[in-house]
Design a protein that fits this description.
Rossmann fold; 5-stranded parallel sheet; globular
């Protein structure tokens, strides 16, 4: 494991409450004793457009909601649009897609992409997100 690694994490979630709760949860994981040797830069966005505009080529991990609704945008983007941009700008970024979409066709299509993990958004998804995030951090620091 590399000592002193800076890890950039991006959260893209359109639901304000869930975004804030998820960001706090990710901060808690990153501040744990497991990762005390690393520094973390965590940025969260409510829209796909904002995330894409601020996309850093050095982003290491992205937690991405698939369905991104924003009534102020005329050009509504979804998780696949964000994945396209991430693959262009930071191909080594580990993308964790979190989705409440109950559409098997969407799930299958996203799982065929070069993503790190796909998690169904439900009452138990917080624990799954935490476990997958910890695994992504560990694999990234090796």
């Amino acid at each position: 494991m590399i000592n002193g690694k800076n890890i950039k994490i991006v959260i893209v979630e359109d639901d304000l409450y869930y975004n804030k709760a998820l960001t706090k949860y990710v901060e808690t994981i990153c501040e744990s004793i497991l990762f005390k040797e690393h520094t973390f830069e965590i940025n969260s966005f409510l829209t796909a457009h904002d995330a894409i505009e601020q996309l850093d080529d050095l982003t290491d991990i992205m937690i991405l909601d698939y369905t991104l609704v924003n009534e102020t945008e005329t050009d509504v983007l979804n998780g696949e649009n964000v994945i396209d941009e991430v693959e262009k700008h930071c191909p080594k970024c580990k993308i964790i897609v979190v989705s409440a979409a109950q559409n098997p066709a969407i799930t299958a299509r996203v799982m065929k992409r070069d993503i790190y993990e796909y998690i169904d958004k439900n009452i138990n998804s917080k624990n799954r997100i935490g476990a997958v995030l910890q695994r992504a951090i560990v694999s990234h620091t090796r």
